[in-house]
Amino acid sequence: MNTLLAFYQNIGPALSLLVLLTFLLAGAVKGVIGLGLPTIAMGLLGLAMSPAQAAALLIVPSTLTNLWQLANGGHLRDLLVRLGPMLAMICIGTLVGSAWLGLDSGPWAVHALGAALLVYALYGLVGPGLYLAPERERWLGPLCGLLTGVVTAATGVFVMPAVPYLQSLGLGREQMIQALGLSFTVSTLALAVGLAGQDALGGQALGASLLMLAPALLGMLAGQWLRQRISALLFKRCFFIGLAALGGHLLING
Hints:
Elements: H1 2-11, H2 13-33, H3 37-45, H4 51-71, H5 76-100, H6 108-126, H7 137-155, H8 162-167, H9 173-197, H10 203-211, H11 213-227, H12 232-253
């Protein structure tokens, strides 16, 4: 237990409280709209620590909550076949990007994180509804996977351009939720390998991440309860507005 708590003893009570509240909030957002845990976690924690530290903390909660998300729906085999090339390129892009860029490459990493959050938020607010012709999936899927991997390696955020691409495939609601869970799981595991290669994911970091699983799950349950009582559309709009403000702050101020 001392090993698990060592990270939080080192960063102090104020920052530990920020980490705890961040994962509660991030889990709640994911419970309401089905995504947002890594983006919220990276954005808020990026205000107080390096992107590499923040990314290490989200590995366990992000992996297990996304596994939970992709386990339901009954379309896993079909999605693995259809999205396999994109998922493979996410892994390649993340590993190559980690060796080339990495989250500890200097102050620019925080600005890159802010830019990724801002672009994603603006797309969520005003992005057009896209439809991709099936014959274009063969080359566009791997390309989106490669770009998503590079962005993941540089920022710890793995929603762009994977989310717009998946939304353009015309998937049903359950398929879409499962596809997001599948994409995010692969991205998180590839990011974990990349962080380990940068010596940013040791035993202490994994222990600290494991302790954040409980608040993330608690937040998800609260979000699922809240989803039945509020307008998901209004909540999503507020989420993207807040994310845009946070991304803009990190982009400008670093």
